[in-house]
Amino acid sequence: MLAIVAALGALLGAAVLPCAPAQAQTTAALPFPPPVQERASVLNARLGLHPDKTRLVLELTDSVSFTVSVHGSPYRVVVDLPDVSWPGGNTVMAGKGVVARYRFEGRDGGASRLVVETDGPARVVESYLIPPRDGFKPRFVLDIARTTPAQFAASPPVAVTTGTASVSREAARPPARKDPIVPVAAALPPPVPPRAAPVPEKPMILVDPGHGGVDPGAVGVGGVYEKDITLAMARELKRQLEGSGRYRVRLTRDKDVFIRLRDRVAIAREVNADLFLSLHADSIGSANMRGLSIYTLSDRASDREAEMLAAKENRADALAGMDLSSENDLVASILIDLAQRDTMNHSKRFANMALEHLGREVKLIPNKPHRQAGFAVLTAPDMPSALVEMGYLSSPQDVSLLSKSAHREKLGRGMVRTIDAYFKWLTGAQKS
Ligand SMILES: [Zn+2]
Question: Which InterPro entries match (predicted)?
């Protein structure tokens, strides 16, 4: 079967590209020559679950050119790169979603290869490079989706896309679709037999207790601090999530310390969180207003109150003498990122599920319990994020509730149900 695929690939290649070696032609087809550069390194790799695909993101020190191809026996997606270093990349890394496992190989002749084994026939939805911008390094994005054996067999044996960082995502798309079929399969060595396969990882939930240290957050009725309420709830949620056996959990802080908003986002990216949940409790002028509300990121605030709340929460860093304008820049710039759009839709979906499940356990605010605004702490570009205002510290009743462990247990239960429903949606939708 492999021989037939390779031979067919060679035939097609010969028809399209007479007398040209496949790889040379691929490189020549690039719209721009790759820039001369130092050897690039992979800084970080993460897999993200999406309802219709699994996304692999490589964060790189420098932009690189790449070639993506799809293969069978075993089913895998291969990304060929120039000579790239990846400290620790030679071990087989655990998969998630469509991806069974993946590994990185240095190759002869100053080249590197990323082999992404899938759990069945798969197709590449899209692959592109996001140029470095606004403090983010270049990112290579590979979206893979399941396909049927029949569709896999019917599609060309090898589909190739190429790109470099000197081409914007939009500019890279049309040539990628028009690329001729190139017999990369003929150049591939026999597939490596599967090694000891690591079990797929449990989703990582990052729980972020708002404020801390010099920043007490809101000061409530009776002098209660928001930073203490959020930490107590974060610990309870961690206890319940870990108790379920279905998740890995990290807290951005487990003691009374100050952490900058951008560092909370950095921690989320460092641990490759699948979900980021920031816990808060607001305070306003009225003692009567009470209930829970949930917020997601948007470049346009849903209403004036949400906008003011975001401004208030974004001021956290100013309390420790940080320059606030940089947080506002962060919010403004990240929203241009196309990869963010997808993440924002997931965040909204999560928020809607949260209202459904939390609404059964605790009181929600009466008017529009899900709102959107530019929260600096929700700007991780590739993970769904939400901010929960668990209640109002200006309400004696909410303060009394949030100070009780029985109430935190109920709230935690609703959050675990929400998280269960969310990941069920993600993984369930992926399998269909
Ligand atoms: Zn807060």
Answer: AMIN_dom, MurNAc-LAA_cat, N-acetylmuramoyl_amidase_3
CA of 393 to the centre of ligand 1 (A): 10
CATH number of 204-431: 3.40.630.40
Q: Look up residue 152 and give its two tokens.
A: 């896999």
Separation of 242 CA from ligand 1 center, angstroms?
25
212 CA → ligand 1 middle, Å: 10
Highest mean pLDDT, choosing among 164-178, 217-231, 326-340, 369-383: 217-231
Q: How far is the CA of 226 from the centre of ligand 1 (A)?
A: 7
Q: Output the pLDDT for position 182.
A: 36
| Cα–Cα separations (whole angstroms), residue 91 to 61, 179, 232, 414 | 20, 32, 38, 38
Half-sphere exposure of 88 (CA within 13 A, CB side): 5
137 alpha carbon – ligand 1 mean position (Å): 29
Closest residue by Cα to residue 208 from 404, 406, 383, 426: 383
Please check whether the domain covering 2-187 is classified as CATH 3.40.50.170: no
Q: How far apart are the CA of 331 and the centre of ligand 1, in A? A: 17
Digit-coded pLDDT (tens) for 52-101: 888 888 888 888 888 888 888 889 999 988 888 888 777 888 888 889 99
> Per the structure block, which two tokens stand in for 114?
């990323």
Quote the ligand 1 centre to 115 CA distance (angstroms).
Answer: 43
Residue 300 token pair: 């346009």
Res 172: pLDDT: 32
Compute, in angstroms, the gap from residue 276 CA to the centroid of ligand 1.
Answer: 15
Q: Is 53 strand, coil or helix?
A: strand
Q: How far, in Å, from the CA of 357 to the mean position of ligand 1?
A: 22
CA distance 207 to 199: 24
CA–centroid distance, residue 268 to ligand 1 (Å): 18
ipTM of predicted assembly, 2 dp: 0.99
DSSP secondary structure string for all residues of 171-219: HHHHHHHHPPP--HHHHSPPPPPP-SPPPPPPPEEEEEE--BTTB---B
- Residue spans of the domains in the chain: they are 2-187, 204-431
* Ligand 1 centroid, distance to 49 Cα (angstroms): 28
Q: What is the DSSP letter of 225?
A: B
Q: Do domains 2-187 and 204-431 have the same CATH topology?
A: no
Output the CA–CA distances (angstroms, integers) from residue 276 to 123, 176, 203, 347, 352, in the order listed: 29, 34, 11, 9, 15
